[in-house]
Amino acid sequence: MQELLNHPAVQAGLAPFLAALVAAELFQRVRLSGLAVIAGFAVTVYLASDFAIEPLTASRKIVLLGLISAALGLLLSVVRLSLFSALLPILGGAAAVWVALRILQQQPPQTLLLWGAGCAAYVAILVWSLDSIESDPLRAANAATALGIGTGGAALVGASALLGQFGLALGSAAAAHLLIQMISNKPLPAGRAFTLPLSVIAGLTGCIAVLSAQLPWYALPILATIPVVARLMPLPRQSIRMQGLLLSLPTFAIAGGAIYAAWRSAGDIPF
């Protein structure tokens, strides 16, 4: 049993998917099924890493901020405050600088400013774009699934196993949320308890994979277009199932493009 739980496919795929599936079903009656994403991520952290704080490495900062953002997202799902629509991207950008600070401090001043600003902008864009669709469960779950898989797959190809598992766990958890909507043919509430931790964890994971592993920087702008496309793509007045399938085509294609970009950079492709 322990050997099975130690398998990466279980830790980053099956376990977070099942945990998110159970959490989404349990909490949907109180309209907090968005907590599924942090439930799935927490299971992966438990199996693949730990919840220790010291020493406060970049990966542990990601876990810590993921849990904090989930708590904040839960609060904002219950208490609607319009002020936070503008404030959340700023907080996300500041979080990116804090997580990457130790790595950035080892760089020359010009590189430090460029990379720091780039990471802050990337996380801020993800937080803003996913927050703009937090009230549209189908678009949010679709974008989250593609973003998680794209981030995890690209980080894994970029030679970072733990960061890859973080991203894939998000994708698996979001996929459970999306699957329930597709099977029931009904929207499942998402809210900021879903979109905020996902955007923060995915954004920070991508940034650290660029700074400390071999993920090419241009994979991040590709990934950043996923929630934007999910928001802007027009959908016909059809069933949730059909809308979900149509929406999956461009978002998953973009995720695949980010993974392919990382693969080409790694030089392991056979053509």
Say how many strands there are.
0
Percentage of residues in helical conformation: over 70%
Mean pLDDT: 89
Shape call: globular
Subunit organisation of the chains: single chain
**Measured on Cα atoms, how large is the radius of gyration?**
17 Å
Q: What is the structural class?
A: mainly alpha
Largest sheet: none
Low-confidence stretches: none
- Give the SSE order as H and E letters: HHHHHHHHHHH
Structure summary:
The chain has 271 residues and is an all-alpha fold.
Name the descriptors.
single chain; 271 residues; mainly alpha; 11 helices; 0% strand; globular
Task: Characterize the structure shown.
The chain is an all-alpha fold and 271 residues long. The protein has one domain (2-265). Helix content is 77%, strand content 0%. Helix 7 (137-157) packs antiparallel against helix 8 and helix 8 (161-184) packs antiparallel against helix 9 (192-212). The model has no long low-confidence stretch (mean pLDDT 89).
Set down the secondary structure blueprint.
Elements: H1 2-5, H2 8-27, H3 36-48, H4 58-78, H5 83-104, H6 109-131, H7 137-157, H8 161-184, H9 192-212, H10 219-232, H11 240-266
Helix pairs in contact: 2-3, 2-8, 3-8, 4-5, 4-9, 5-6, 5-9, 6-9, 6-10, 7-8, 7-9, 7-10, 7-11, 8-9, 10-11
